[in-house]
Amino acid sequence: MILSYNNILFLLLFKKKSIVFYKNNLYSNDQYRNIARYLSCGGIIVTKKQKAIADIFDNLRRVYQVINEQSKKAKKQTGITGPQLWAIKMIAESSPVQVSELAHKMYLHPATVVGILNRLEGKVLVLRTRTREDRRVVDVNLTPEGKALVARAPEVAQGLLAAGLEVLPAVRLLDIASALDELVQILGAQEVPPHLILSPEVNVPRKLKKVNLQ
User: Fold this and answer.
1) Is the pLDDT of residue 23 over 50?
2) Are 199 and 84 in contact, with CB atoms under 8 Å apart?
């Protein structure tokens, strides 16, 4: 909604049965709140572009707040990070699971998942064993301690986000990905390593070691 100088000068607002009358026009309560918000900024005219930018900032704050608070809640209640708890929940749903499969479910590089599993194994929450059929294949299972932790663990924002994105059509996902890429470029953050929230892991593929063939 755009407020002109003329509208601001002749502004007349009053409520009656949840309807707002604004200079011969009818406005809903939501529109009334928008007008009130605009006027609270000193009567500054807000364009659609400015409103869109404000909404982007607010939505980024909401996303960060939810993921950050739920990650802190997971850490407080379970003693492990949000990504570690998400890994345990994924293992609980389909154990035994292989590292590559778990990485696929969590949308992470296998090397990143290995780092998460190393820490979980150190806490005696998961167990990795080689299969009898192929000793190169490693299965991941929860220990009794890991199963007990899952039973009392809260939801993780990463899991909720993944579940919500997975039901969206491909075209919508591409739109979201493109918009986020644009934000990354605006901030000049294309080369910033994607750290997992409140976790030491970075989601990057493992670099191959250089081998001297001479």
Assistant:
1) no
2) yes
Between residues 207 and 205, the one the model is more confident about: 205
CA distance 138 to 117: 12
What's the pLDDT at 36?
59
What's this model's pTM, rounded to 2 decimal places?
0.70
Q: Give me the numbers of helices (H) and strands (E) for the chain, helices first please.
A: 9, 6
Half-sphere exposure of 170 (CA within 13 A, CB side): 0
Q: In what order do the strands lie in the sheet with 15-16?
A: 15-16, 19-22, 25-27
Q: How far apart are CA 96 and CA 88, in angstroms?
A: 12
The domain containing residue 19 runs over which residues?
5-49
110-122 and 82-94 helices, crossing angle to 10° = 90
**H-helix or E-strand containing 33?**
helix 29-40
φ and ψ at 142, to 5 degrees?
-85, 145
Span 11-26, mean pLDDT? 43
Q: Are residues 13 and 115 in the same domain?
A: no
Give pLDDT tens digits for 116-156. Answer: 999 999 999 999 988 777 677 788 999 999 999 999 898 88
Within-domain flag for 63: no
**What pairs with residue 26 in β-bridges?**
21
**61 in any annotated domain:** no
**Tally of domains within the chain:** 2
